Amino acid sequence: MPLPSPIAWTPSRAVRILDQSRLPAEERYLELGTVDEVAEAIRSLRVRGAPLIGIAAAMGVVQAVRADSAGQGEGARDSLARVREACRTLGATRPTAVNLHWALARMERRAERALVEGEDLTAALVAEADAIWAEDRCMCERIGRLGAELLPDGATVLTHCNAGALATGGMGTALAPIYVAHAAGRRVAVVVDETRPLLQGSRLTAWELTRAGVSCTLIADGMAASRLRRGDVTCVLVGADRIAANGDVANKIGTYALALAARAHEVPFYVAAPRSTIDLATPDGSYIPIEERAPAEVTGFGGQAVAPASVGVWNPAFDVTPAELVTAIITDQGIVRPGEIGRLERAG
Questions:
Q1: Structural domains for the chain
Q2: Which of 14, 52, 162, 169 is deepest in the core (most CB within 10 A)?
Q3: Which helix (H) or strand (E) holds 335?
Q4: Which of 8-17, 29-38, 75-84 has the least mean pLDDT?
Q5: CA angle 65, 140, 177 (to 5 degrees)
Q6: Other CB atoms closer than 10 Å to residue 72's CB: what's the count?
Q7: CB neighbours (10 Å) of residue 34?
């Protein structure tokens, strides 16, 4: 079965997304025709994953101007103002994923250039969003090819959250090497952390892998250290939402604990991410803003309470894994040690 396609254009250039909040029970698609609808979808995790958030936001900017007849002439400056407002609205949805702000900055620069050069603004923005999408697809493929070299026949990979096709514009980041190795006929098995509190591992990664015919075993997050202790895990492979200049990695909450367990059991800990996720303007992990989400995500699930209503809740969406716990970072430009990322080319 082909990998899922979580995002697409409609014929009228609205944004069509797979509502990931409903998986695996329901495969439902939504059509988003306004900036506010795209922002809500990102904020509510209907669309998620750092690279895919960037793509969705870029497509969301188009919604600010697609009703214009041409995006030219006297109304062009008004259209540019709407683009800038759209970028502010979309940029406020999720603070940690750097791909979001990287993509929005590209869209704003493209709008400014279109105005100066007298281009059709809507067409220019659609082309830029498509370029961001196509670039991510190529980056995923390169990450897959490079990372697959780290997975011998018979490998068992432990992963956390979802960094597959549902999180990107292509085959994924952390799951891409697994898909490439599987397609090449290598036996690769995956141990999937459920990823509390929203279960992106059990709801999304396990769903993706089983559809693709990749052998996988689901475990609760608290079982990961015990599984590593068994000695049958070849490596840990996770994605990232932002990588600081010194190699510190922000990823889904629980990643730090997994990295500590991997270090304790001498299991390689790899991070897979496109160059656009590396933020050289952020010196180290202490400067990465960590999104805190609603208490209800922890106190209930699926409409059912799992904790007393009055209990206090701390619910960070991400944690930071120090660079010294990361064996290597698999990027589209090569596999590097955390201290070597400064030599990578800047993303566009």
A1: 7-140 (1.20.120.420), 145-343 (3.40.50.10470)
A2: 162
A3: strand 334-336
A4: 75-84
A5: 155
A6: 16
A7: 16
pLDDT recorded at residue 169: 95
Q: What share of the chain is helix, strand, coil (3-state, %, to 5)?
A: 45, 20, 35
Residues of the chain with pLDDT > 90: what percent? 90
d(CA 133, CA 137): 6
Active-site residue, from 193, 221, 241, 332: 241
How far does Cα 236 stand from its chain's mean position?
A: 17
Concatenating the DSSP letter of every residue in 112-159 gives: HHHHHHT--HHHHHHHHHHHHHHHHHHHHHHHHHHHHTT--TTEEEEE
Give the orientation angle of helix 76-91 with respect to helix 121-148, to 10 degrees: 40
Residue 4's pLDDT is what?
82
Contact indicator for 267, 233 with CB cutoff of 8 Å: yes
Q: Of the candidates 186, 285, 298, 176, which has an alpha carbon nearest to the alpha carbon of residue 238?
A: 176
**Helices 35-43 and 76-91 sit at what angle, rounded to 10 degrees?**
10
Strands 242-244 and 278-279: parallel
Rounded-to-integer distance, Cα 317 and Cα 125, Å: 31
Q: What is the DSSP string of 57-81?
A: HHHHHHTTTTTSSSS-GGGHHHHHH
Provide the pLDDT for residue 68: 63
Confidence tier at 280 by pLDDT (50, 70, 90)? very high
Question: Any catalytic annotation for residue 221?
Answer: no
Q: What is the pLDDT of residues 205-224, one digit of tens each?
A: 999 999 999 999 999 999 99
